[in-house]
Amino acid sequence: MTKSELEQLLDLRKEIQELDAKVEKMQGQRVGKVMDRVHASMPEFPYVYTTKTITGVDNKGSRKRRRELTESELLLLKRRQQAVDAEFKISQYIKSINDSRIRRIISLRYEEGLSWDKVAAAMNCDRTYPEKLLTKYLKEHPEKKKRKS
Question: What backbone phi and psi angles, to 5 degrees, belong to 11?
């Protein structure tokens, strides 16, 4: 795992939220709703003339629109799944670290998004110490690549 991969964690989480919102919005647009006004009167005396608003579904334009939205939605869901997979991989890596100090540094810096100054303050040490310690750890413990059988 590299620092650049760890730095993506917060952005991946935000991207997942944004994609969820887009998909939800698209699902709301899937049905083509139409509105119209009609003239009516009371069924009994005094037969007052009124205007009513009615709503319905546009069957002609809705099929094509649904197909377009479904294709776009599938692309968004595919992108969301890629982001979820990347976030899961990073989270699993963080959980697999045995050294609690390194886990704290990664958690403060990459999960909570604190600056190196704030990470150092939280750990009661010099500003450069956490970054140097993490760099050293990442060099000494490269991620093991899984071989595909």
Answer: -65, -35
E strand spans, 29-127: 33-41, 49-57
> Is the model's pTM score more than 0.70?
no
- Total number of residues shown for the chain: 149
CA angle 55/61/63 to nearest 5° reads: 105
CA distances 81 to 15, 43, 85, Å, are 11, 56, 6
Distance CA 113, CA 116 (A): 9
Structure confidence by residue, pLDDT tens digits, 118-140: 999 999 999 999 999 999 999 99
Structural contact between residues 61 and 32, judged by C-beta atoms closer than 8 angstroms: yes
Q: Where are the domains of the chain?
A: 1-30+55-96, 98-142
CA distances (Å), origin 71, targets 31, 53, 66, 117, 129: 15, 33, 9, 45, 49
